[in-house]
Amino acid sequence: MKDLSINTIIFIIIVLFVNIGFIVKMLNQYHKTKKSGYLREEAFQEQLEQRVMRSFGNKEELNKLIHDFVRYKDAAEKNAVLLKEQDVQLKLLNRKLEDSMIKCEEEKARFQKEVWALEDLLSQTKDIIREKDWELHELADRLKMVKEALLKKQLEERSEIPGRWHIPAQ
To answer: CA dist 110 to 117, 122, 150, Å?
Structure first.
């Protein structure tokens, strides 16, 4: 402070006093506001109580009403606990249902694969039957041709032997 001039020191002291004065003013204003808020709240409580007294007539009815509200609150809390328990049970059942649905979907997929495999097998079997039927048809045609050739051959052999076989006269 020795290096500062007297004007600077006086200026600093004035600013310090102004700041202190401002702080004191703000503290007083804060306390007044706090006190008036408390008084307002207290007045509001009194007004509310007077309104209730006018509405219900006496304190007994008010106390009865408060008792009913407390009882309703307790019942609501019990119901909330029951609802939470039911929520847990429903979540568990929902999880089981989802697991069952997943199992059903897996089983459905497995059955679908089996159906597709059986359809493929049926298609292959139909193809084999068609081929065998075609072969059987060809064999029947060949057998018919062989029978006709055999009959023709027998006819030729019998016609070569004149005494043994003859065509009956009509």
So the answer is: 11, 18, 58
Task: Give the span between the Cα atoms of 100 and 91, in whole angstroms.
Answer: 14
Structure tokens at 113: 């694969």
- pLDDT, one tens digit per residue, over 53-71 is 777 667 777 778 788 889 9
The predicted pLDDT at position 89 comes to: 95
Q: State the DSSP string of 36-77.
A: HHHHHHHHHHHHHHHHHHHHHSSHHHHHHHHHHHHHHHHHHH
Q: Tell me the C-alpha distance between 133 and 127, whole Å.
A: 10
Residue type, 122: L
Q: Rounded distance, CA 52 to CA 58, Å?
A: 9
Work out whether the CA dihedral 130, 133, 135, 137 comes out positive or negative. Answer: negative
Phi/psi for 5 (5° steps) reads -80, 165
